[in-house]
Design brief:
Length: 210
């Protein structure tokens, strides 16, 4: 059974992420998913916490020394994720995609084998996240991650989970394995607006706990 990892850091008194953490623990217990979940001190904002994700993943790979799957803490498991346990040995990094390729990729779930190539990928993600933090006030870990996948594709072997593995809350059906979490914390909304996202698209990405 492939271990699932995540962390949570509350950014305001509403404790959205603590609530999500309890739900994730309940889902994983019900479905017999091997979960490692850690509460991590907030770095001051939703964005800063998100950009600390790659370092956390690297730390846990080095701690457990085995393949791991990262999921965002506001993930909802609808059924047991069999494909997490069926990733071919030659795959270094695997992701969910609505289109079956890099264009439709999502930043959760993310599978990492325990090898030099996956570590190289994560180090690139860590370094670029640090540059984003110091040079600009927009972009989350997701946007940084997309560029890493493209530039590392000659050195890292990728796998793709089926489209049912991660869908928006509005698209859940009987085949769904993971329902994406979409927090609506104020500083997330502020950055999304700076990125030019508004109207119905903003509402779709900030539905909170359903």
């Amino acid at each position: 059974m492939t271990k699932v990892i995540s962390f949570y850091s509350d950014v305001n008194e509403e404790k959205y992420y603590s609530k999500c953490a309890e739900r994730l623990k309940e889902d994983c217990s019900r479905l017999s998913i091997d979960l490692y979940l850690e509460e991590k001190k907030s770095l001051g904002s939703y964005r800063n916490n998100c950009l600390s994700k790659p370092q956390f993943i690297k730390d846990k790979l080095e701690q457990f020394k085995e393949p791991l799957v990262w999921v965002d803490v506001d993930t909802v498991f609808r059924r047991y994720p069999d494909s997490f346990d069926q990733v071919p040995e030659n795959v270094d990094v695997a992701f969910s995609s609505s289109m079956g390729n890099l264009r439709g990729m999502k930043a959760s779930p993310l599978y990492f084998s325990y090898n030099e190539r996956s570590m190289f990928f994560i180090d690139e993600w860590i370094n670029r996240s640090a540059r984003v933090l110091s040079e600009m006030d927009t972009n989350f870990d997701h946007e940084v991650l997309f560029g890493i996948f493209d530039t590392c594709k000659q050195m890292v072997s990728y796998g793709v989970f089926p489209p049912t593995y991660c869908v928006w809350p509005q698209q859940v059906n009987e085949h769904t394995v993971i329902e994406m979490g979409l927090s609506d914390v104020p500083d997330k909304i502020e950055v999304l607006k700076k990125m030019g996202i508004d109207g119905d698209l903003l509402k779709m990405q900030t539905v909170g706990i359903l």
